[in-house]
């Protein structure tokens, strides 16, 4: 066994950096938190190459005097805590005193700072482990510059993703802090281009409007809830405005952006049946709670918190969201209206095979097709629809249960591919072009893929300032909802920008086909018949383009076995 040795400071800092600084966005998060703690009301974040070459955060906060400036880059140097008892009542965003020392140990680091009281400020440079301190003329506040992040840890550097992906992480974290801090002006610049700025406003709602745009904001409802344990306030998206990922879901505890399962469970449980599977509500929700009832010190990046009374916390957050959905009439009456149900089903459910087949002149039409391969549906007899989701029919093998959305998806997919490969996509011009307001991160993805989208029939112009205009859509989709476009962007942001265009195309098409379909649509009998006919004419009627089944069939022998008719 080798002898135990004490690690030197440089190495300890590097190890700590591994926990605090995972990627450029973590640096941005720590620096923004410091600026907020320093009471800044202007924070400008200037990024080059997704943060790989430069991260610069400038604030107009309290600044530091020379002695503090010297100390701040030491490990465990913090002004936010002076004894261990305070740890439980911490109300600032920082307190561990390891962010700056960690960041400085894995980059070329400089910090310029000045307080109100002094004339001259201080500049500190840390490069290759050497620290240099000088006086400098500057204004009140602090500017931190982080260059060549991870250049001394090649393994970390290699692990970073593309510039666009790293920038997306940064844009997301800046957006999150900008959303909840209405009293702070934020500006985010990437490669000399202003990505967004959020003015100081007097209301949280106006702040959200300035960041997410009017369209999203108009679909939000207010949450305000108070108990003797906590207070919840903010906004949640109406169930009609959900997303296919959680990028627009921001929850804060005492204005600290956190990821917490209890909040998440309470939120999804409160929405419950109002959400389709894999859809996520938009939220900007802050929970104000006595800091002594939580522990924010369970993770170096402080994004995860521990709540001591989990049940109470869950209940209050659940009630807060539920109450807001109720008062805004967003929870429909769950009772099934019997009369309605029967009225809509004009055709009686036929259970006896012989009686169905005997009725040749019944309104239930029989369909004949030539080919009778095992993969085809063939002649069928329509029975009806259940739960606005499944179509029941009978063919020569037995009972068919068709998932109407999966079927529509398959039909649209094949139509789209045929047009795309042979004729070119037919587009329809929107009478009134639609404005799409995007978040900074989405906007980057849009710019990167705008040509590809137009090739696929979505004609989009860049309007500047994260706004785009949708002018044409592929005709086969009928009416296109803007949510489809933002969903496609989310789907694309998960694909590395190096992916070949072909793979991206394929994914957009499959995705668009799936999303172009409305859920829970009631269908008339002729429409259902048309759907089954069209499905049968596709090359693969039994699977949707995502590989799920479009139809399952229960054979007569199987039914007989189930009813124990077989002796
Ligand atoms: P922590 O935030 O946990 O205290 P940091 O390493 O992030 O630790 O910062 C160390 C100290 O440096 C802070 O406690 C604060 O006193 C000072 N500091 C850091 N950034 C700023 C800033 N932007 N403005 C004023 N003081 C700052
Ligand atoms: Mg800090």
Task: List the defining traits of the structure above.
alpha+beta; 5-stranded mixed sheet; 24 strands; elongated; binds adenosine-5'-diphosphate; binds magnesium ion
Description:
- 35% of the residues lie in helices and 25% in strands.
- A hairpin with a 3-residue loop joins strand 9 (220-226) and strand 10.
- With 567 residues, it is of the alpha+beta class.
- The termini are far apart.
- Residues 332-374 have low confidence and may be disordered.
- The site of adenosine-5'-diphosphate has 22 residues, from helix 2 and helix 4.
Number of contiguous helices:
18
Low-confidence parts, pLDDT < 50 over ≥5 residues? 332-374
User: How would you describe the oligomerization state of the chains in this entry?
Assistant: single chain
Terminal residue distance: 75 Å
The count of β-strands is: 24
Overall morphology: elongated
Q: How is the main sheet built? A: 8 strands, mixed
User: Which ions, cofactors or small ligands are bound in this entry?
Assistant: adenosine-5'-diphosphate, magnesium ion
Class from secondary-structure proportions: alpha+beta
Q: Over the alpha carbons, how many angstroms does the gyration radius reach?
A: 29 Å
Fraction of residues in helix? 25-40%
Spatial strand order of the main sheet: 5-4-3-6-2-1-7-8
How much of the polypeptide forms β-strand, as a percent range?
15-25%
Q: Give the mean pLDDT.
A: 83
